[in-house]
Amino acid sequence: MVDIRLIPCLSDNYAVLVHTGDETILIDAPEAGPIKAALAEEGWTLTTILVTHHHTDHVQAIDAVKGSAKVIGPKAEADRIKELDETLDDGAEFTLGGLEVKAIATPGHTSGPLSYYFPGAGIAFTADTLFAMGCGRLFEGDPATMWNSFKTLRAALPDDTKIYCGHEYTLTNARYGHQALPEDAAIAERLKVVEAARERGEPTVPTTMAAEKATNPFMRADDPSVAAQLGMAGADPVEVFAHLRKGRDSF
Ligand code: ZN
Ligand code: FE
Predict the structure, then answer these.
(1) Percent above pLDDT 90 for the chain
(2) CA 167, CA 136: separation in Å to the nearest integer?
(3) Using one digit for the tens of pLDDT, what is the confidence trace for 74-92?
(4) Is 243 helix (H, G, I), strand (E, B) or coil?
(5) Which end of the chain is more exposed for a tag (fewer CB within 10 A), N or C?
(6) What is the largest CA-CA distance in the chain?
(7) How many angstroms does the Cα of residue 144 sit away from the middle of ligand 1?
(8) End of a domain among 165, 198, 233?
(9) Crossing angle between the packed helical segments 170-180 and 237-249, to the nearest 10 degrees
(10) Are both 233 and 149 inside the same structural domain?
(11) Last residue of a domain, one of 165, 188, 203
(12) What percent of the chain has pLDDT over 70?
C-alpha cells in the first residue's frame, strides 16, 4: 500500500510525500516548515529525497528536512544542486521501498530536469515541466525542446497516471486555455470544475494524463482542432506550441 501526501508550500508550490513500508520519499523541498509538520503528523521518517530541478523553490529546504535521507537528482543539473548524494541519467530505473521508479529527462523549463514515474503506483511527478492544463516557462529551452518533453511524457505515462506538478497554477492555466480556445467544450467545462475547487480552497493536483490529453492546450499542440481554432491550420506543432507559450507568457 502506498500513502501519498500533497504538501502546499510557499505561495503556490507543492512538495509530495510517498510512503510505503519503512520508506518515505519526498519529491522536492520548497519549504521546511510544512514538510516537517506533515512528517511529524504522519509519524514518517524521510529516507529519500528526489529532486526534479535546480530552481531555488524546489531545493532550498533540502538541508533543513533531510535528516539521514539520501538526496537523489538529475546528473545534468548536478553542478547546480550541491545537496545531491546520488545522480541519475535519463531512463534510470531503480526501486525505493519496493516501488519501481523511472527517471525521465524533460528539458525545456531548465536544461536537465527529471520527471519521476512510479509505474506500479500509477503516479508521476513532472514538477515545472507539465502543469495541470499548462506548461512551465522556457527558461533554459526552446519550444521544440519543451514540446518534445511533452510528447515523451504523453508516450510514457498511461492515461490513468496521477500526475503531481510543482505548482498550483491550474486556475490561471484554465483561464488562459479558455481564452485561447474559447470554442473548446472540454476546456470550458474543466475551467468551471477548477474554479469551484479553488473557491473551496481545494488543490487541483494531482491531474491525470487523460485529463491533460483532453484539456491541456500545450499537450494538444498537434491536435488539428487546436491549430484550426488558433488560425494556424496545418502549422507545425512546434509553431502551435510556441504560439501558445508566448500567449501564456503575457497572460
Ligand atoms: Zn522551476
Ligand atoms: Fe518552481
Answers:
(1) 100
(2) 10
(3) 999 999 999 999 999 999 9
(4) helix
(5) N
(6) 55
(7) 18
(8) 165
(9) 120
(10) no
(11) 165
(12) 100
Cα 135 to ligand 1 centroid, rounded to whole Å = 11
**Residue 194: domain span:** 170-249
Q: Which residues contact 89 (CB under 8 A, 6 or more apart)?
A: 75, 76, 103, 105
Cα 94 to chain centroid, rounded: 20
Q: How many domains does the chain have?
A: 2
How many C-alpha atoms does 216 have within 13 Å on its Cβ side? 26
State in Å: Cα 206 to ligand 1 middle: 18
C-alpha 229 – ligand 2 centre gap (Å):
30
Contact status, residue 105 vs residue 111, Cβ threshold 8 Å = no
The 8-class DSSP code of residue 163 comes to E
190 shares its domain with 242 = yes
Residues tagged active-site: 53, 55, 57-58, 109, 128, 167
159 plus 178 within the same structural domain:
no
DSSP state of 130: E
> What number of CA atoms fall less than 13 Å from residue 120's CA on the CB side?
13
Q: Please say whether the beta carbons of 58 and 31 come within 8 A.
A: no
Nearest ligand atom owner, CA of 108: 1
The answer to whether 140 touches 247, Cβ cutoff 8 Å, is: no
Cell of 200: 473551496
How remote is the CA of residue 57 from the centroid of ligand 2, in Å?
Answer: 5
Q: How many residues does the chain have?
A: 251
Cell numbers that stand for 153 in this block: 511524457
pTM: 0.98
* pLDDT, tens digit, 9 for 90 and up, residues 200-243: 999 999 999 999 999 999 999 999 999 999 999 999 999 999 99
Residue tagged 500500500 (cell numbers): 1
